Amino acid sequence: MSTVMVTQEKGPGCLIQVVWFALVGWWLGQLWIAAAWACFLSVIGIPFGVMLLNKLPQVIALRGTPTPIAITTVDGVTFVTTGSAPQLGCLLRAVYFVFIGWWFSALWMELAYLLCLSIIGLPLGFWMFDRTPAIVSLRQG
Fold it and tell me: What pTM value is reported for the model?
């Protein structure tokens, strides 16, 4: 049995992403982050705030969510499955969020935002925004 994991990127090309960021993403992203942090002020709003931060790459630069594709061969038969990567336990993710994720994600996103304001730092800033869901709540793929 052998398994190969491939990710399929969705979303527009690099030029469209840069134009979106220059015209809309830079200001809408800051409003989006502020709305997410406002949700964190109440226990009821925390899940919605995490969801907002998980969507941040799409808001900032129209970054698509990669779709993992698993190709498995068993006894000469090939199976192709799609779906998200297995997640860590809910309790572990909740503890991580309470002690680390909420404050570290704020620093992470602001640094990414500052990097995006320069042309040289734009690729690294976009990469950091793509990793925001993992920083907030250890979300896998």
Answer: 0.66
